[in-house]
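At your convenience, could you comment on the folded chain following this short note?
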Amino acid sequence: MSEADSKIEIESITSPHRTERVDRVKYMAMREALLPVLPNTAPGITVAEAKAELLKRLSEEVFPGGAKAGWWLKAVQLDLEAKGLIARGSTKPVRLYRCDG
């Protein structure tokens, strides 16, 4: 895989029109762990609940001992929110759920 292919461009709902290039393997591993744990309806589950569930699904090879999982969870969460694939419920603390988008 070339260096260009090893990166993926992500967005953030909190910084419109700004993108970052991040490691594709880590991004995809986190995305694949996060989406299945999120419910399809609001209000969703808390970020802490999502993290507890997705840690069970993360590749030990990509995230040994869950290392940096919190940072990657936030990066993927903000990107998927920007893309309309997940949303925040209206309650506090922040709760996440999948969208049809």
